[in-house]
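Checklist before submission:
- one chain only
- standard amino acids only
- sequence pasted in full

Submission:
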Amino acid sequence: MEEERNVLILGIGNLLWADEGFGVRAAEALNRTHTFASNVTVMDGGTQGLYLIEHVRKADILVVFDAIDYGLAPGTLKLVEDGEVPKFLGAKKMSLHQTGFQDVLASADMFGDLPEHLFLIGVQPEELEDYGGSLRASVKAQIGPAISYAIDYLARFGINAEERSEPLSESVTLSSPKVALDAYERDRPAEHEAYRHGDARVVFSSSSNPDRERT
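Returned file contents:
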C-alpha cells in the first residue's frame, strides 16, 4: 500500500553552475505541476551532502534527479536503478556534491537504512563552466521527460502523482524565490558586470590546478 512506503524525491546539484542545476530544477518543476500523498517528499537537496543523511535513511524509495557526466551527447537522459546508482554517481565526478551524495548512500548503507529502491534520473550536461548561468536548452528540454520517468517509476509501487488543476507559479521554489528559474535567468547581470567562470580571485589563483573541484 502507498501509505506504507516513505518516498523521497530529491533534486541535487548546484544552481550556480549552469547545467549542474538540472536536478534541482527538475524537482522544482515536479512540485509545481503535481501533488503526492503525505508519505512523499519532494526536496531540493542542492549541495548539502551529508546533511541529507537523515532524510535518505527514512526513505523506502529514493528518486534522484541529477546532472551526470556519462560522456554522452548533451541532454541525453540515462536511467539507473538500485545497486547501480552509487556506481554511476562515482564514475566521473563533476563536483563535490556528487562525492557528498555518494557518502550519504554509503552511510545509509552502513546503518542498514539504505532505501530499498533507488532510481537515478541523470542528464548529460552541456555546459558546466558558466558561473551564474542557467540550464542550456538541450538540458532544460529534458525536465519534462525526466518528470515523466519519475512518475512512471513510482506508479510501479502504487504511488500516484496527482496533476495540479493549475500549476503553481514559476516563482514557487523548494528553497528561495530569489533563485526561481525565470527570475534567475531574467535578472542575471551582463557579462561585463559579472565574471562568467566563477570568482576571479579563486579561479586565477587555482589556474595551476586544472583538476580542482567546484563545491
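Reviewer check: The beta strands are 7-12, 34-35, 40-46, 61-67, 77-81, 117-123, 162-163.
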